[in-house]
Specification:
It is a single chain. The protein is α/β, with parallel strands linked by helices and 139 residues long. Helix content is 38%, strand content 22%. It has a four-stranded mixed beta sheet with strand order 1-7-6-5. It has a three-stranded mixed beta sheet with strand order 2-3-4. The longest helix has 12 residues. The N and C termini lie far apart (31 Å). The relative contact order is 0.21. Keywords: CBS domain. It holds the Pfam family CBS.
């Protein structure tokens, strides 16, 4: 059985909800990623901020990213998956909620993140095609 842990990108970093978007952009650059899970004061997942969020929800809206907190752009209930979940559960979660990045949690701690690139590297083409159809197809 292939698990979330098997296909995740390990070592994902949290960014505190109170941290500013310009700092999030710096961390993304340093880590070579396009998204960061957002943690509340208890280090619990409370959202994800993406490079697109920074551009669309902040910069394009005329706001200063050094004055907007990461938590201010998080929307909805954050989705995550247990590290020991089967890869089919991962696909169901990502397709069912039409999300492209999924934090991986083990014992209430962030241990990694699964992105589209991780799916493409670790899954057969038919599974990747099924994922793309489920996430990108307009229904």
């Amino acid at each position: 059985m292939t698990t979330a842990r098997d296909i995740m990108h390990p070592g994902a970093h949290w960014i505190p909800a109170h941290e500013t978007l310009d700092r999030a952009a710096q961390v993304m650059r340093e880590q070579g990623v396009g998204a960061l899970p957002i943690a509340d004061e208890n280090e619990r997942l409370c959202g994800i901020v993406t490079d697109r969020d920074i551009v669309v929800k902040c910069v394009a809206a005329g706001h200063d990213p050094s004055r907007v907190a990461c938590g201010d752009v998080a929307e909805g209930t954050p989705r995550w998956i247990d590290a020991n979940a089967d890869v089919n559960e991962v696909l169901r979660e990502m397709q069912g909620h039409r999300i492209k990045r999924l934090p991986v949690i083990d014992n209430k701690r962030l241990v990694g993140i699964i992105s589209e690139a991780d799916l493409a590297r670790h899954l057969p083409q038919d599974k990747v095609a099924e994922f793309a159809q489920g996430v990108y197809a307009r229904g």
